[in-house]
């Protein structure tokens, strides 16, 4: 390592461990919020433009979203698993091991993506039916999914590159790559769908092309050595423990995203009993709240490297300070968005399917029900990200599984037979309420342990 590189790494270490918490998290969170919001906006743009093709086409977006959630599940597992380990390793000044973790996670994601592409294309139509396609939605879903599957390796690789940059505290570089790709997607959607007459396939092609652009920009940050971590095939670990650490650390993200995929598929199946308008409405509601929750998750991803760096450096008081600052800010943000969402719910739904009053009515009720519990969401996000980045993988996994697994899946199976369509609309808000309550079972022992570590440091200082 040369002197200039070492000095730059020391500056980054000092920044992450000494900058005032509110300033540091805000600085890191703004780029990640922008990245998440742009991603959510171009997903909404897909839904908006495809919805102009008809109710069945709008439903197809919800079907394929569960497939994309599965790809994201593994991408996030490897990306956040690598990133969380890298934050702690850099906090402990173990850079060579951080290079190994980053390189291993990246190439694992590429291999996984290729496997998804091959298997998905072979079993395309059975897969779409399994995810909840009705006979009228199936042709649209198959056309859309075909191209999304081709982009799986690039999507998986981008998740790792993105999270490694964030873990270093270089969220701005990550933002540039994700945002430029997302903006391109929004521009290409109407051109491909309507201008070139490609229909729903055009939306998928636009998504994959934008993902390729993001991937190239993110990879360029590593090739031009703008990142602290160095990615190279020679750095791939030969130790099974490294692979296991990445997977176990990121497994909470896999549960969260994987269960989101399963939950969306089951939701589609349950909604399909009430016709294509119900599937389309719940698909649109899902995209609206993807945008809302993206802001909170983006803020949480700004908090996560701060917690990881400082936990690795044994600055436990800063970890505690970061947690409560992020929680209070998140509650304020979600409360504002909940109020706005309640009053604009009918207009939001009409924006997508103004020709279908049934879609608007179903979606408006679901949006307002979700707004009631939205201020509770930050506790789950911040708690989960804290446990993940400090290495409490089991706690993080259980909490990740709660929202769309432990609570959502039983509710979506039990409520519709009891209260009909209301059961489909109320399942997610009720699951969020139960998840909020479950957080305290993990937070009480965590803060008891953290406070003891802070007191021990103060006694020996």
What does this 3D model show about the protein?
The protein has 461 residues and is an all-alpha fold. The protein is 87% helix and 0% strand. It has helices at 3-18, 21-51, 55-91, 95-122, 124-130, 138-150, 152-167, 171-195, 200-223, 240-272, 276-312, 316-353, 357-373, 377-390, 393-406, 408-419, 421-460. The chain is globular. Mean pLDDT is 85; it is low at 1-5.
Ordered list of secondary-structure elements with their pairings:
Layout: H1 3-18, H2 21-51, H3 55-91, H4 95-122, H5 124-130, H6 138-150, H7 152-167, H8 171-195, H9 200-223, H10 240-272, H11 276-312, H12 316-353, H13 357-373, H14 377-390, H15 393-406, H16 408-419, H17 421-460
Number of strands: 0
Question: Can you give the mean pLDDT?
Answer: 85
C-alpha Rg (nearest Å): 22 Å
The number of helical elements comes to 17
How far the N terminus sits from the C terminus, by CA atoms, comes to 33 Å
Q: Strand count, sense and closure of the main sheet?
A: none
User: What is the overall silhouette?
Assistant: globular
- Helix amount: over 70%
Give the low-confidence spans: 1-5
Structural class: mainly alpha
Residue share in β-strands: under 5%
What is the ordering of alpha helices and beta strands?
HHHHHHHHHHHHHHHHH
